[in-house]
Design a protein that fits this description.
The complex is a heterodimer of chains A (624) and B (149).
Chain A: E1 7-12, E2 17-22, H1 25-31, H2 34-45, E3 59-63, E4 77-82, E5 89-94, H3 98-105, E6 107-113, E7 120-125, E8 128-133, H4 142-153, E9 157-160, H5 163-166, E10 174-176, E11 179-181, H6 186-192, E12 195-201, E13 206-207, H7 211-227, H8 229-237, H9 243-250, H10 271-278, E14 279-283, E15 293-297, E16 307-310, H11 313-318, H12 328-341, H13 345-360, H14 366-369, H15 380-390, H16 395-398, H17 402-409, H18 434-442, H19 455-460, H20 477-494, H21 506-517, H22 523-543, H23 555-559, H24 574-588, H25 598-603, H26 618-623
Parallel strand pairs in A: 1-6, 7-12
Antiparallel strand pairs in A: 1-2, 3-4, 3-6, 4-5, 7-8, 9-10, 9-12, 10-11, 14-15, 15-16
Helix pairs in contact in A: 1-2, 2-20, 2-22, 7-21, 12-15, 18-20, 18-24, 20-22, 20-24
Chain B: E1 3-7, H1 17-27, E2 29-30, E3 38-43, E4 46-50, H2 63-66, E5 72-74, E6 79-81, H3 91-95, E7 102-104, E8 106-108, H4 118-122, E9 128-132, H5 135-148
Antiparallel strand pairs in B: 1-9, 3-4, 5-6, 7-8
Classes of the chains: A alpha+beta (624), B alpha+beta (149).
Bound molecules: iron/sulfur cluster (3 copies).
Chain lengths: 624, 149
C-alpha cells in the first residue's frame, strides 16, 4: 500500500485565498505528525516577536500520525500558535473528529494566517475550500454554532470558537463535538482572525501500510486496554477517579487558590458520588474506545437542563476545589458555561479562585464585581463564568488571565497569583510533587501537567523507565523531566491520548507506526524526535524573549508550606527550583540560560537553527 | 437462526470505532464513507449507530428484493452482495430503510463479517449487539429512525 500523501493547506484569511502543497518526506520523518509537525510548520512561518493577535500569527492544525486509526485513544489533533496568554509557542490538543476528517480530505495539515474583514467560517469539503460569511454565527455559543453550521451547510465536522474567543478572552478554547482544545487561548487567536469556525468533510480513504496486521494489533491493544485499571476505573468514573486518593493519600489537591492542598468538602465533587447519580452514559473522543467522558445531566432544581460532556479531573479542581465550591451541580453548570462560551476550564477556575482571594484580602470588592465572589459560595462560580464569557464589567479584566489581573490590580496581588509564564496551573500542588513543579517551569506553554506528564511519576513513584521516585525530593528530577518531556511529545505527535499511558508505552508505538506507514523507528529515534521538537520550541521561545527569568514558580509555592494533610509542611523553595532547572538545562544540552548549544542542535539535525541568534538581537538582550 | 446487528444507542459513546474498523477490514483503508454502518451524531447527548438489519422479514422491504440483477442473496449467514452481478444501479440504496447500504461502483453491504462482526467485537459498551432477527428489533430500529430524522 502506498503511503498517504500529506498536504499542507495554507489559508490566508486576508484575501480568502489558499494554496496546497505537498509536505516533504523529511518533515514527516523528522516530526512525525500532530504537534511535532504543527510546531515545525508554525515556526517556519511565524515571527517570534509577533503579537499573538496580529493577523500574521499563524494557527496550525495537525492530526496525529495515527489519529483516526483503529487504535484505542488515537483521537487527537493539535492546534499550535503563539499564545495570547503566555506569549510562548503553545499547543492545544483536542479529541474532536476534525483531524480525521482533515486526513480524509487529503489536507493533512491546515495553516491559517491573515484576518478576514468580516466574520467568516471556513469549510473544507474534500478538495474544495469554501469561505462563507460567519456573521450569522458570530455571538452564538459553541454548541449553537456547531448545530447551525451543520444545519445550513451540511454534515461537516465543525470546530468552533464561542463568544469568548470572539471577544479575545486570552484563555478562550476551541470546541469540536463537545471536546475542547482547551489551554493557551488559541480560540482567541481564531477570534482575532474573525474566523468563527472550521468545518471539514472528507470522503477520502486513509490508506494504511498493512491493514491485516493493524486489525490484529487493534484487537491486541483493545484487550490490553480493557484489562487495565485506566479503562476499568475511568470508564466508570472518568478522569476524576483518583480525586479522593490525591486528597487523602497525597494531600496535593490545590484548594481555595492553593491556600490549602486538601479539599475537605470534596465528597460531592468526587465522581464516586456523582457518576452514578448524574451520568447518563460514557462519551468518547473520536476513534477512542476508552470513552472516559461522561454525559452529565441535571434533571431538576436550579440548574435543570444542564447537559455536558464532562467532568474532567482538572475541572473538578478548577471550578470546584480551587473556588472552595463543593456543589457538584453549580460546578457542572459552570463547566457547561465554559464549554458554551468557549473558555478553558482550568484557567477560568484559577482566575475565579484568584479573584475570590483578592476579595478576601480587600483588593477587590464584591460590589465592583457585582457577584458575591467568595470561597465556598458555589452560586458565584457559574455567575463568574458568565461574566468572563461575556466580558461584562470586570469580566473584561478577568478574561485577561491571572498574570495580567495581578498586574492591573497591583498591590501585593502578584503574591497570590498562581501562574507560570502566564499560564494558570492544573490540579497538582507541586509543593508536594517537586518533579511536576519543575515540569510546570520548563513546559513551553507555562504551568502545564501534560508536557512532561510528570505527575504520574511523582504521585505513584514509578512510571516508564523510572522507579523509586520520591515526590518530595529534587534528586535527578532535571534529568527525568527532560526524558519525560521527550517521551510525552511522542503521544502528541502520534495523536494518542495520554490517558492511555497506563497501558500504552513507547514500545507499543513502534509496531503501530510500522503497520500504519511501513516505516520502522527505534525507541531512541522516537525520543530523539521528541527532543528535536522540544528544542525547536525552545528556540522559538528564546527568540520571543522568554528566557530563564520567566521560569519562575509562584510565590505561594516557593514560600508558603502546605498547611495540612499528607504533604503538610512541603514547600518547593526557589533554591530547589533553580537547582532542578539548572540540572534540567544541562540534561538538555543547553547552557544555563536555557540556550541550546550548537552541538546539541547539530546532533538533532537542526543545523538551520544554529545561527538563530546571528541575525537578531534577541540573544544579546537575553544575555544582558 | 439468522442473526443481525441491533443498535443500542443508549450505550453509544460516539467514538465511531465501529466505522473505522469496518472500513479497514472490508476495504483495507480507513474511510467513514466506505463503512457498512454509520454512526450519526444527533447532538452532544445522542449518537446513533445505524446498522444493517439483514431484513429477512416479511414486513420489511429489503435491498435483495429490489435488486434487478439478483445480486444480493442470503449466503447462510447474511445477505451479501455478489460483486460480479452488481451493476451499481443504486436501487438497493434507495430501498434500504436504514441508510446503510451504499453504492459507489458496486454496492457495499454489511456481511456480518462472516458471523463474527468486528463492530460488535470492538464496541466496548455494547452499543451494537449481535442478536437473532426478531420483529421487535425491526420495530425498534424503525422507531429510532423516526426519532432521529
Ligand atoms: S481516553 Fe478519554 S480523553 Fe482520551 S481519547 Fe479516549 S475519550 Fe478522549
Ligand atoms: S463502536 Fe460502539 S460506542 Fe463506538 S460509535 Fe460504534 S456503536 Fe457507538
Ligand atoms: S442493506 Fe438495508 S435493506 Fe439491505 S438488508 Fe441491510 S438494512 Fe436491509
Amino acid at each position: 500500500m502506498k503511503e498517504h500523501c500529506w498536504h499542507l493547506l495554507d489559508i490566508d484569511l486576508s484575501d480568502l485565498s489558499f494554496t496546497r502543497t505537498e509536505i516533504a518526506d523529511d518533515l514527516k520523518a523528522n516530526y512525525l505528525g500532530g504537534e511535532g509537525l504543527a510546531v515545525k510548520l508554525f515556526t517556519d512561518a511565524a515571527d517570534p516577536k509577533i503579537d499573538p493577535f496580529s493577523p500574521r500569527n499563524p494557527v496550525v492544525i495537525a492530526p496525529g500520525l495515527l489519529t483516526g486509526l483503529p487504535i484505542p485513544t488515537a483521537s487527537k489533533t493539535a492546534f499550535v500558535s503563539k499564545s495570547p496568554l503566555t506569549g510562548t509557542i503553545a499547543e492545544s490538543i483536542m479529541g474532536g473528529g476534525i483531524g480525521i476528517q482533515m486526513k480524509m480530505t487529503g489536507a493533512y495539515v491546515i495553516r491559517i494566517t491573515g484576518k478576514a474583514k468580516e466574520p467568516v467560517i471556513l469549510l473544507i469539503d474534500n478538495g474544495s475550500v469554501i469561505f462563507e460569511s460567519g456573521s450569522k454565527y458570530w455571538g452564538l455559543s459553541t454548541r449553537e454554532a456547531e448545530m447551525a453550521i451543520k444545519h445550513d451547510h451540511g454534515d461537516y465536522v465543525v470546530a468552533t470558537i464561542g463568544p469568548a474567543g470572539e471577544t479575545l478572552v486570552r484563555y478562550a478554547c476551541i470546541d469540536c463535538e463537545g471536546r475542547q482544545a482547551g489551554r493557551a487561548g488559541i480560540g482567541a487567536v481564531l477570534g482575532s482572525k474573525n474566523l468563527k469556525a472550521i468545518g471539514v468533510r472528507g470522503n477520502g480513504d486513509l490508506p494504511v501500510y498493512d491493514a491485516e496486521r493493524l486489525i490484529s494489533l487493534a484487537l491486541k491493544w483493545q484487550e490490553i486496554m480493557e484489562k487495565s485499571n485506566a479503562f476499568i476505573e475511568d470508564t466508570k468514573y472518568g478522569s476524576g477517579e483518583f480525586l479522593e486518593w490525591v486528597n487523602s493519600e497525597r494531600g496535593v489537591f490545590p484548594t481555595k487558590n492553593w491556600k490549602e492542598s486538601v479539599f475537605d468538602e470534596r465528597k460531592e465533587i468526587d465522581p464516586y458520588y456523582w457518576a452514578p447519580k448524574y451520568s447518563l452514559k460514557n462519551k468518547a473522543c473520536f476513534a477512542c474506545t476508552k470513552a472516559c467522558g461522561k454525559l452529565f445531566v441535571i434533571r431538576e432544581g436550579r440548574y435543570a437542563g444542564t447537559l455536558l460532556d464532562g467532568i474532567e479531573y482538572e475541572t473538578l479542581y478548577a471550578l470546584g476545589g480551587q473556588c472552595g465550591n463543593p456543589d457538584i451541580e453549580a460546578l457542572a453548570k459552570a463547566n457547561e458555561l465554559c464549554d458554551l462560551f468557549g473558555i478553558d476550564t482550568i484557567s477560568t477556575g484559577v482566575v475565579i479562585g484568584f479573584v475570590m482571594e483578592l476579595v478576601e484580602r480587600g483588593l477587590l470588592s464584591v460590589k465592583d464585581i457585582g457577584i458575591d465572589c467568595r470561597f465556598g459560595n458555589s452560586e458565584a462560580v457559574p455567575k463568574m463564568v458568565e461574566l468572563i464569557g461575556k466580558r461584562e464589567g470586570l469580566g473584561a479584566l478577568f478574561g485577561e488571565g491571572v498574570a495580567r489581573i495581578a498586574k492591573t490590580i497591583g498591590g501585593d496581588s502578584e503574591d497570590y497569583a498562581l501562574h507560570v509564564k502566564g499560564m494558570e496551573p492544573p490540579a497538582y500542588d507541586v509543593r508536594g510533587l517537586k518533579g511536576m513543579g519543575l515540569g510546570f517551569m520548563t513546559s513551553s506553554r507555562g504551568a502545564c501537567h501534560l508536557r512532561s506528564g510528570f505527575y504520574a511519576l511523582d504521585l505513584t513513584g514509578k512510571f516508564w523507565r523510572f522507579e523509586g521516585v520520591d515526590r518530595l525530593s529534587t534528586k535527578d528530577k532535571g534529568i527525568m523531566v527532560k526524558a519525560m518531556e521527550d517521551f510525552m511529545m511522542i503521544y502528541d505527535c502520534l495523536g494518542i491520548c495520554k490517558f492511555s499511558r497506563g497501558f500504552f508505552k513507547i514500545e507499543g508505538f513502534i509496531d503501530l507506526i510500522s503497520v500504519a506507514i511501513g516505516k520502522s523507528y527505534t525507541e531512541e529515534e522516537l525520543l530523539l524526535i521528541g527532543e528535536r521538537i522540544n528544542n525547536v520550541k525552545q528556540i522559538f521561545n528564546l527568540r520571543a524573549g522568554i528566557g530563564r527569568e520567566s521560569y519562575r514558580l509562584p510565590k505561594r509555592i516557593t514560600c508558603e508550606p502546605i498547611s495540612s494533610g499528607a504533604s503538610k509542611g512541603a514547600v518547593l523553595t526557589e533554591k530547589e527550583a533553580e537547582e532542578m532547572l539548572s540540572e534540567y538545562f544541562i540534561a538538555r544540552g543547553w547552557d544555563l540560560k536555557g540556550i541550546p548549544t550548537k552541538e546539541k542542535l547539530a546532533q538533532l539535525g537542526l543545523n538551520h537553527l544554529i545561527n538563530w541568534n546571528k541575525t537578531e538581537i534577541d540573544r544579546r538582550s537575553l544575555e544582558s | 437462526m439468522p442473526m443481525c446487528l441491533v443498535p443500542y444507542p443508549e450505550n453509544c459513546t460516539g467514538c465511531r470505532f465501529c466505522e473505522i474498523i469496518c472500513s479497514l477490514s472490508h476495504e483495507r483503508v480507513v474511510s467513514l464513507e466506505k463503512a457498512r454502518l454509520r454512526v450519526v451524531r444527533k447532538d452532544i447527548a445522542t449518537d446513533i449507530p445505524f446498522v444493517c438489519a439483514q431484513c429477512q422479514n416479511e414486513e420489511n422491504k429489503c435491498c435483495a428484493e429490489v435488486c434487478p440483477e439478483d445480486a444480493i442473496f442470503f449466503d447462510g449467514k447474511a445477505l451479501v452482495v455478489d460483486e460480479v452481478r452488481c451493476t451499481g444501479c443504486g436501487l438497493c440504496e434507495r430501498a434500504c430503510a436504514y441508510g446503510v447500504i451504499r453504492v459507489s461502483g458496486v454496492a457495499r453491504k454489511c456481511d456480518l463479517c462472516g458471523g463474527d462482526p468486528l463492530c460488535v467485537k470492538f464496541c466496548p459498551f455494547g452499543a451494537i449487539k449481535y442478536e437473532e432477527i426478531k420483529k421487535e428489533n425491526f420495530r425498534k430500529i424503525l422507531a429510532m429512525m423516526e426519532v432521529s430524522f
